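Thread: quick sanity check before group meeting

JM: Hey all, I'm pulling together slides for Thursday and realized we never actually wrote out the predicted structure for the chain we discussed last week. Dropping the sequence here so it's in one place. If anyone has concerns about the input, flag it before I start.
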Amino acid sequence: MKKLNLKDILIPTVSLFLICLIVTALLAVTNAVTAEKISENEAEKKQESMQTVLPDAVLFEEIEIEEGELYQGKDQSGNTVGYAVSTAAQGYGGQVKVMTGFDLKGTIIGVDVFYNDDETPGLGKNTSNESFTDQYKGLSANEDIAVSKDSAAGNAQTVDAVTSATISSRAVTKAVNMAGEIYRNIKKEAE
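JM (edit): ok, ran it. Output follows.
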């Protein structure tokens, strides 16, 4: 059996350390270069999502809240036409981000799943399809919504889950319910 000397241990250790140091530095540089572009893309996606759920609004003003993000949508004359609320819930593969639009009476105008990239392609990702999100249109912020599989209590406001994507469907529904709660709270404060 060959005896290890200091040189046999030090050379591979230092080499591995230098490789890790170089890779870490390259990742840090890549992150610094792309961070601004990623931030711009996210802001653009969010703006498109707000426009999708509140199509009559031409201007969105952010209202500071503790949880989620709330935007007051205004028309060309500066009149409030509704609210867009951005919330997120844990899906099957990660965070599912949802924008929910409400009119001034608390009726859902639209729901847009603007981020579900971590969900399973062909299953959970289908929660962003209009065939699923259109089910929320016309429902009220004043009552929670349930996925039909979960509605043993006979909840009047239900949506059908995407086939084989119940967890992702529940995540979207949870995010919409969170948005409804934010909407109810803002309306209470306004009274």
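AS: nice. The chain has one domain: 50-190. The chain has a mean pLDDT of 90.
JM: adding both to the slides.
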